[in-house]
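Handover notes (outgoing to incoming on-call)

Open items:
1. Probable E3 ubiquitin-protein ligase HECTD2: sequence verified, structure written out, both below. Nothing else pending on this one.
2. Nothing else urgent.
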Amino acid sequence: GLDRGAKGQISTFSSFISAVSPKKEAAENRSSPAHLVFPNIKNVREQPPICLDVRQKQRTSMDASSSEMKAPVLPEPILPIQPKTVKDFQEDVEKVKSSGDWKAVHDFYLTTFDSFPELNAAFKKDATASFNTIEDSGINGKFVNAVYDTLLNTPQDVQKTVLKGIINSLLREWKGPRTKDDLRAYFILLQNPQFNNTSTYVIYAHLLRQIATLVEADHHFLVHWFKKLSQKRFKQLVERLLQFISLRLFPAKPEEFPPITKCSWWIPSAAKVLALLNTANNLVHPPLIPYTDFYNSTLDHIDLMEEYHTWQNFGNSHRFSFCQYPFVISVAAKKIIIQRDSEQQMINIARQSLVDKVSRRQRPDMNILFLNMKVRRTHLVSDSLDELTRKRADLKKKLKVTFVGEAGLDMGGLTKEWFLLLIRQIFHPDYGMFTYHKDSHCHWFSSFKCDNYSEFRLVGILMGLAVYNSITLDIRFPPCCYKKLLSPPIIPSDQNIPVGICNVTVDDLCQIMPELAHGLSELLSHEGNVEEDFYSTFQVFQEEFGIIKSYNLKPGGDKISVTNQNRKEYVQLYTDFLLNKSIYKQFAAFYYGFHSVCASNALMLLRPEEVEILVCGSPDLDMHALQRSTQYDGYAKTDLTIKYFWDVVLGFPLDLQKKLLHFTTGSDRVPVGGMADLNFKISKNETSTNCLPVAHTCFNQLCLPPYKSKKDLKQKLIIGISNSEGFGLE
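Probable E3 ubiquitin-protein ligase HECTD2 structure tokens:
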């Protein structure tokens, strides 16, 4: 790390420069400010706050297909002579190992980081070329990596020299329009690993602000250069920015930083640069890093509802909220926002209802706080549909279920049983609403026409209720279903606007019908004569109740042959027909059902993948976490049977672990909050050890006889979880 000043901190450029003494050697011919006076944060002119409000569609959007930006191109300055080649630099570093003399290396760093032109002279692949395209930054990335990797192993005076040079560069270059060489310099400086150290954060913050306040055309170039970085270097940039935000919010040593009131722009600037990196990541297929790597878990510990209300109420102002940058908010935090937003809406409604009752001198009914469902097991779907239709104003209330003719209070078990039974019945192949595709292990909407689509609305309501009542549903829709569910994320005020329609590709179709998608891909890549070899027209055929029906993909499609020239259009129209048009009414009912429960601006914070996790849970199992959170009834965790159990389960392959989870909870996925949210319990079953384990799915409970040997326990457990029928309801 850097040596600190007398007070052990570097709070501003001024205090930092006092810790970095000017170097006279090798600097006599360098241009520098007439006097080394660096502004305190309060003296730096305020930049306009960064706003990337998702409701205003102000996300950084980049045209991935454009190779040139139509922006005025400023003339590039004549660069200094390139000081060293990569080979020269590496030879100088090797010499240090034998001589111990860092002078040549020190001089290189002193020269290179003194100004933006010098940075370009050192790292530009060809100092005479302009490199004004988004596809090529013109930077010798290997040289940049070598210089930075070496920097961390140099003496402190060399590292201080680099930071001083960066200060000079930022002060000299922070005003006026940017050339592409300036953008290259920012691109290089942002990769400096010294910014992992909190003592450099003041400099880092100023670098981030200058990048954040660039014009959109400049951001466009940076985004496309970011996406060309290696996965390792890209991830380092993201982690560095996330750490910067976390330590500014919760500093380990508050005295290291200026007061938050004097640097309120730090976090907005970092968030804007993160937004550029997020955009770059989304332009690459597959992404450089998972979208979850942008999550900042520190934000789980701030006042999320204050952030949400700031975003809601001051969306058009310059007030910053993390909700403007939802990609940094974890799905667990988003779930909290959605649930609390719904609770607040229901509290307001209940409060008004109570006031109305009292004003009319009527006795308040505490049932107004709940969505009370009374259903018959023999008429489960029809009763549920009737109840939910009658009580559509109560859908956001806490759900309580009563089965007619059965005693007992719903403490959560009856609600879960209602969900499990209803989903099992609706998704049964004989019911005809959904088709199960074995190749992709998922359900898709049946395209059969019907007079009433209300049962599709019921499925949408169920999914919404599951989100609000923390129930993990055992249903498998393909990813494009959730993309359609957020198209748009808020129900449009104009009912003529179509809903549940999104751009789909062969990749989306492959997630449902891989064999058909493969055939379409072969059509696209076919090198022969498509018209003669495939003999297809712009027409598709579907079987409905034993009758083959034909549909034109475009007007007169039955008379238009598919050719080499129009095959892309054919594949696009075919895919759109299968995933959008042929099931429009079914999906629209499903869409409106879901949004009748989840009608919240908070949905705009979600990615399609996150909606799936909220509804169905995460597929990532951590059985050690389940072991740590398991409760016991009749057993102690030190009992031999329990030790046998965990030895066996932790040694299971993934498919058996999933079967165990499905057997005991009704789903092979994990809730958003992790294994701990399952409240998994193992109870002692005093029956014969010849009996198989029993699961009470509605309570996530496994009843385990006290088997005498690990072998016997393993054998009985595998038989039990492999041959369980349906949902294992008990």
